[in-house]
């Protein structure tokens, strides 16, 4: 491309590299007539491609799998950032799971009865109520440490949807 008269900027845009990288390659080519990557440049890989695929597959099969579990299954001593990098390359992100209260048929029936009992209320009756959808009640241990691996836009899919159950009856 450079021998055809293209600018460094245009070549960089075409091959998705920085102008500096294209300039350095061109200098090396004009000086030595060839371009080879330097041996030993870059970090050595700790995992094989098969192990990389296994890491991603485990996160897809079980979104709640932890990095330490993956490390034990793969059998390679690598740092947690390596797992995160492999999963990020596969477009998987570590997110908090979407939590929802389960609505059983009994819950639905009770909600319907509540609404029907108040269907004839006027404005003054409704002014006595306070509605809030931002309340958070923690009964027991808070388990916000649980994270899931999921693709973008996969918030409410069943593997990453956890139903919250209350262990203590509210009075």
TrEMBL record:
This is Transposable element Tc1 transposase. Residues 52-117 form the Transposase Tc1-like domain. One of its GO terms (molecular function) is DNA binding. It comes from Trichonephila clavipes (Golden silk orbweaver). It comes from the Eukaryota. The gene is tc1a_547. GO terms for biological process: DNA integration; DNA transposition. Pfam families: HTH_Tnp_Tc3_2.
